[in-house]
Amino acid sequence: MDKFKEKLSALRDEVNAATARAETSEGEVKRLADEQLQRDHEITSLKNKISFYEAELEKADNKMAEAKLNLDEGETTKTVGEGLARKVSLLENELDSAERNLRETTEKLRLMDIKAEHFERKVQQLENERDTYERKVEDLTLKYNGIKSELDETLKSLDDM
User: Fold this and answer.
1) Which of 110, 86, 106 is nearest to 98 (CA)?
2) What's the rounded Cα separation, in Å, for the pair 29 and 22?
3) pTM metric for this prediction
4) Can you give the pLDDT of all 161 residues of the chain as single tens digits?
5) DSSP state at residue 59
6) How many CA atoms lie within 13 A of 42 on its CB side?
7) In sequence order, what are the residues at sequence separation of 6 or more whose Cβ sits closer than 8 angstroms to the Cβ of residue 116?
């Protein structure tokens, strides 16, 4: 029986050791389960943070895209404004040139009007002179014809004599 008691005692020691190991293992399992639960909570928390930051990133990307669009529109507006300013400058230059040409043309027209008036007066004067000379020619022609007829009569009367 001593052997039996020894065996029983050895078995009890083994059972106690196994129980101690089981309790240790159960404690370890509980600790690991708690740790896993804590890590699961951390993962969930991190997933929530990731979702939040992804949403914030998307908002920031949208704002950045909008800002780029506004910048592009601003640059387009600036470019259009610069183009319009160049067109205005060119049109102002063309206007200045056209005004200069108008002044020159107006001056030339005024000079041409003065010359035309001068020539009209000259033509009127020459027409008057022509009319005067025509009258003189008519008068002289009449005198000539009168003198010629008188001469013819005188010659005829001399021939008759």
Assistant:
1) 106
2) 10
3) 0.40
4) 778 788 888 888 888 888 888 888 888 899 889 989 999 999 998 999 999 989 999 998 898 888 888 777 767 777 777 888 899 999 999 999 999 999 999 999 999 999 999 999 999 999 999 999 999 999 999 999 999 999 899 989 888 87
5) H
6) 6
7) none
